[in-house]
Structure of Amidohydrolase:
Amino acid sequence: MALTSTAIAAIDAAIAEHTDADVERFIDLHRHPELGFMEERTAAVVADRLRELGYSVTTGIGVTGVVGVLRNGDGPTVLYRADMDANAVAEASGRPYASTVRVVRPDGTESPVAHQCGHDAHVTWMLSMAQLLAERTDLWAGTAVLVGQPAEEPITGAKAMVEGGLYDIVPVPDQMIGMHTAPMPVGTLVCAGGTLMAGTDQLDVLIRGAGGHGSSPHRSKDPIAMAAEAIVQYQSIVARMIDPSATAVLTVGAIHAGADNNVIPDEALLKLNLRWFEPAVRERMLRGIHDVTDGIVRTYQVTDDRMPVYTMKGGSTPLVNTPALSTRLADAFAGALGELSVVRQFPAQLGSEDAHLLKGPHDDIDFTYLMVGVVDPDVFAEARVQGKDYPYTQHSPEFYVDLAAIPMGARIASYAMLELLGV
């Protein structure tokens, strides 16, 4: 084990020394959330801080991605990834620094923006760990590659960075690490080998009809009626076309159609999200969506030139942790935090991620993704008393990161890096 008692003590002391600055940075990021591929301010914060610490920095990888590289002699190469984007959610956490930001999205719609998934904490943890590595080069050897990734929420950022030339800039790592907030008590973390998260796809379905007056629906081909039927029938794909022992989720996250009470529009847009573990299940859902939608549209006698348009957007395969690396890190965390703080066995979750897609063509990179508790232990305990699994979840308006999780997450990130790079 490379994470010695000396290294643990050094990490704890260093993080404690700059916790106030870390919390201040976290609050600043929280107040200035940005959606995927719009993270210009956040990327600048990451790039500027890494430059200050002596990292070689490259910006604009995959639109707004940032990479910092710090070389410290011979040794392994470890890539650490933090995602930077926020959610189109109106925050209702009650925090004094809650986001009030609203933006106009590329499609012209206006939405609230807030860090209701904790990516502001992810960035803060990485920058705190970056400072530890820069100031204590006596504790490690090798190459640290720190990645500020855009657009995790639409599941497009990792792929964009790889396609944008990530591996023309950085060496192929021996190991890769990512961390994410979890609605668990501060001081606990999940470090489990095997499949941790589901695969996902984002699919837009544009139903095209013929608009008309609300008083004369028979003279139109109502896309809202078609969309409503499709939403209901999509659930039969999961309920009646897929083995009940398999895992499949099909969610319609948004429907955009029309503007006035008395006007039938000519289009309706459905935004779908799929979750799956087996590729065959994914293919069956996609085929079913086409069959159901096309069948409904033909029932309304829509002409061939107005058939639905299907647009595949972001997507990711299931996230699978390398068992040996997960075990190694779990042992290190147990030594630093105590065995009771480390969850080594965890059921696969239907949440999804694209961190592992940063491997690009290098499938043999060892990879582990950690889930880090960010809830006040008393708040968590009270939720359990009330019969809740969690007091709140990511993407909900009530989600927030307890400030005690800022130094704890920074310590965990530093423990992980020094376990793999430590001397």
Observations:
- The chain has eleven helices and 18 strands.
- The mean pLDDT is 97.
- The chain has two domains: 5-197+318-421, 199-315.
- The first strand starts at residue 56 and ends at 61.
